[in-house]
Amino acid sequence: MSRIGKKLVAIPKEVKIEVKDGVVFVEGPKGKINRKLSDRISIEIKDNQLFVKRVSDTKVDKSMHGLFRALIVNMIKGVTEGYVKELEIQGVGFKAAVAGDKLNMALGFSHPVNISIPSGVKIETPKPTQVILKSVDKELIGKMAAEIRSIYPPEPYKGKGIRYLGEHVKKKVGKAQATGK
User: Fold this and answer.
1) Partner of 91 for a Cys bridge, out of 65, 70, 75, 160, CB 3.0 to 4.6 A?
2) What b/e string do you get for 79-118 counting C-beta neighbours within 10 Å, with b at 16 or more?
3) DSSP-H helix ranges across the chain
4) What is the pTM (predicted TM-score) of this model?
């Protein structure tokens, strides 16, 4: 049995979990989220504890066992606590602002960059160089943060670009310092 898959999942009192037609619905104080289960995985709920079971002991079933348990734990954490990703923008004149359902960024290109914000993600810009993403869906918020970062990843010479908060970018020496002139 999978080490992760065989662990019981404690369901908090404020969370409701329901399984209908192969789809898990999780509802809590922060919101609702759902995910389709594999046909090879089943869920059993007893006494505020959730148990994930698999059909057989094939390699694929074993890998899905731990995966779906981890996904359900992430869903429960999302509806109770929520997920937050913070990005920082570094560079002269680089800034971001939220306007309606779009994130507008000036990143030194000849044009402003506009990204539409998907439903389920809240974006805040307390400072022009700081972007905070909040969501109940860990997968969605991670994808959105990576998409924003990929527009202008931090470059290794001056460190300009969009990076995760606290991300260390190893700087390279320039051409003039490398030749020793």
Assistant:
1) 160
2) beebbebebbbbbeebbbeeeeeebebbbeeeeeeebeee
3) 59-80, 138-151, 175-179
4) 0.88
Neighbours of 24 (CB within 10 A): 20
Concatenated DSSP letters of 143-177: HHHHHHHHHSPPPTTT--EEEETT---PPPP-HHH
What is 9-80's CATH number?
A: 3.90.930.12
**Domain extents for the chain?**
9-80, 83-164
pLDDT(6) > 90: no
Residue type, 81: E
d(CA 2, CA 14): 28
The domain over range 83-164 is classified in CATH as 3.90.950.10? no
Q: Could you tell me the two tokens for 81?
A: 């606590």
| Torsion from C-alpha of 108, 114, 117, 123, nearest 10 degrees | 40
Tell me the Cα Rg of the chain.
21
* Helix, strand counts (H, E) of the chain: 3, 13
Confirm whether 9-80 and 83-164 share one CATH topology. yes
